[in-house]
Amino acid sequence: MMSTEDFVNKVKDTQQKAERNKRRFGHGTPTDKLSTKKHSTNK
């Protein structure tokens, strides 16, 4: 069982990582984040 302080530090760390990823990948738009389909054919 982790202490409350450890839990709070873990949550803050997770939030910081999420914020960094959000800034890096297109400011919260999911289409910019998920750019795995590079060549799609619209039929």
In short:
The protein is mainly α and 43 residues long. 58% of the residues lie in helices and 0% in strands. It has helices spanning 4-24, 30-33.
List the helices and strands and how they pair.
Layout: H1 4-24, H2 30-33
Describe the structure.
By secondary structure, the protein is an all-alpha fold. It contains two helices and no strands. The protein has helices at residues 4-24, 30-33. It starts with a helix and ends in a 10-residue tail after the last helix.
- Report the principal-axis shape: elongated
Structural class: mainly alpha
Sketch the topology as an H/E string, one letter per element. HH
Strand content: under 5%
**pLDDT < 50 runs, ≥5 residues:** none
Count the E strands.
Answer: 0
Please give the count of helices: 2
Distance separating the two termini:
54 Å
Q: What's the mean pLDDT score?
A: 74
Primary descriptors:
single chain, 43 residues, mainly alpha, 2 helices
